[in-house]
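Record type: monomer structure entry
Structure origin: computed from sequence
Chain ID: A
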Amino acid sequence: MTSVTQTCRDLSELTADAQIACRLLFQECYKSGIDFIFITETFRSQSRQNYFSNATLVVTKVA
């Protein structure tokens, strides 16, 4: 991955143990009737983490 703005959803970027854990989670969800699972992000590089840490946070207060 080259861009700090690009999200990685590739399970192969994870360690072997983490890949197994994800696949086991999928299996348990399917057994329970949850048939749609969306991985939002599998791996975040330090540069991407820094990008988020340095981003300006905008908070909107709802009255």
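Annotation 1: The chain has two helices and no strands.
Annotation 2: The two ends are 41 Å apart (CA to CA).
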